[in-house]
Write a structure and sequence with these properties.
The protein is α+β, with helices and mostly antiparallel strands. Helices cover 48% and strands 11% of the residues. Strand 5, helix 2 and strand 6 form a beta-alpha-beta unit. Pfam families: DUF2851 (PF11013).
Length: 427
């Protein structure tokens, strides 16, 4: 037995409602199950019940066993003083409030049919599921439910990404340009070098970036130097030596302290994603666009966002991926797929947060942009589409990732609109 199933049973009244009684044999009439609380505190707020004909308004707490009340130390927590009913699967102990008054207990196993238990068991049948628990049922869920759930999941993902943004805002004293710089560097590093690149951004005072951005070579030297990529005195390459000397000068002038910076990786990266290329591209992005934050916030057209990110690495990198080693000549531009990732992971979450900060609803503009970006290609999205989820845009692919990471892998099926819909339909 799982507690989330008990929540589901109570929330949707999937129990025999006639002749309900407490462990003390007092009659129970459910007028309102209350509001499901997903945070700390009682599980359902503001329920309304009649117990032995007396109207009660308050909170409901749910456990597998009555004794869990004491295992979780609720008897010491003032947040549980207004609990009017303890709903449990097994009643193994009488429970009291802090003032020693008895809390009425409803033992669910006396009032729940075998059908609901079987449906729940089928949903979690690991012998049949290879990817997600409900893989045999997703295609049976109506399109409106799936589309609406994906939309909610995308907003949830934006809110999750907002946590880092709020943290960066606090540390930068609400400098949105600095926050953008941190996010861009993090996402220019992709998964492999995200932590390393973010540590560079947090080490480099953004006032220095403002002073250097009109000279991309200086900004490039600062970024590469802080990343520890200019520390090899054995490299014989004119451009490397120039950057190394420039970094030495800037380091003394601005007091760079790279001790907290994690050196970026090259291993298992395609050459186009080498940190040398990505850091040079970022330097050139800032040289091309003064007040980049305001441009990205005010731009409402996806095509105009693509124009902003039409930048390349410095000309040295046209025939290099690393210092001193010639390669086939090619302009190291940001590809459309990489720009899409920057828009999805940097621009749109930042716009979402900025709109909230300004007391505005920025969701419509975010959706208008993200729905025009092609869906991401990855294993999770591909498998969901084969099962019939119907992922078409990047917003929906982001939602699919949120669904898989935050619900499917954590077996939160009854907090998911799809799992809940399937269980409703089978009961």
């Amino acid at each position: 037995m799982r507690e989330d199933l008990l929540h589901f049973i109570w929330k949707y009244k999937k129990l025999q409602l006639q002749h309900l009684a407490t462990s003390q044999n007092e009659t129970i009439e459910i007028l309102d199950v209350g509001t499901h609380n997903q945070k700390s505190g009682p599980d359902f707020f503001n329920a309304k019940l009649k117990i032995n004909g007396q109207l009660w308004a308050g909170n409901v707490e749910i456990h597998i066993n009555s004794s869990d009340w004491y295992a979780h130390h609720h008897e010491k927590d003032v947040n549980y003083e207004n609990v009017i009913l303890h709903v449990v699967w097994n009643h193994d102990l009488e429970v009291h409030r802090r003032d020693n008054t008895l809390i009425p207990t409803l033992e669910l196993n006396r009032y729940v049919s075998e059908d609901i238990l079987k449906s729940y068991s089928d949903l979690f049948d690991k012998r049949r599921a290879k990817f997600v628990n409900c893989e045999n049922g997703i295609s049976k869920v109506d399109e409106f439910t799936k589309a609406n759930w994906l939309e909610r999941l995308y907003i949830e993902r934006l809110e999750q990404k907002s946590i880092l943004i709020h943290s960066l805002l606090e540390s930068s004293k609400n400098d949105w340009e600095k926050v953008l710089f941190c996010l861009l560097l993090k996402n220019f590093g992709l998964n492999v070098n995200a932590t390393s690149f973010l540590s560079i951004a947090q080490t480099l005072d953004f006032s220095v970036v403002r002073k250097l951005q009109r000279n991309p070579m200086q900004l490039e030297s600062a970024l590469l130097g802080l990343a520890g990529l200019l520390a090899n005195d054995e490299v014989i390459d004119p451009y490397y030596i120039t950057l190394q000397k420039e970094y030495g000068y800037l380091s003394k002038k601005f007091g760079f302290n790279p001790q907290g910076v994690q050196k970026p990786e090259f291993f298992k990266l395609r050459p186009a994603n080498f940190p040398t290329i990505r850091l040079s591209q970022l330097a050139n992005l800032y040289e091309r666009h003064q007040n980049l934050f305001h441009k990205l916030i005010l731009t409402e057209s996806l095509d105009d966002l693509y124009v902003i990110f039409e930048i390349s690495a410095s000309s040295y990198w046209d025939d290099h991926f690393t210092f001193g080693k010639l390669s086939k000549k090619s302009k190291k531009k940001l590809t459309k797929s990489f720009i899409d990732l920057l828009i999805i992971n940097t621009v749109l979450p930042l716009r979402f947060c900025y709109a909230q900060n300004q007391g505005k609803d920025g969701v419509d503009v975010v959706f208008s942009i993200v729905e025009k970006i092609k869906k991401e290609e990855n294993r999770v999205v591909d498998k969901f589409n084969k099962l019939g989820l119907g992922v078409r845009s990047s917003g929906e692919s982001q939602a699919a990732l949120q669904l898989y990471n935050e619900y499917c892998t954590k077996n939160k099926c009854l907090q998911c609109a799809i799992g809940s819909n399937l269980l409703h339909g089978n009961i």
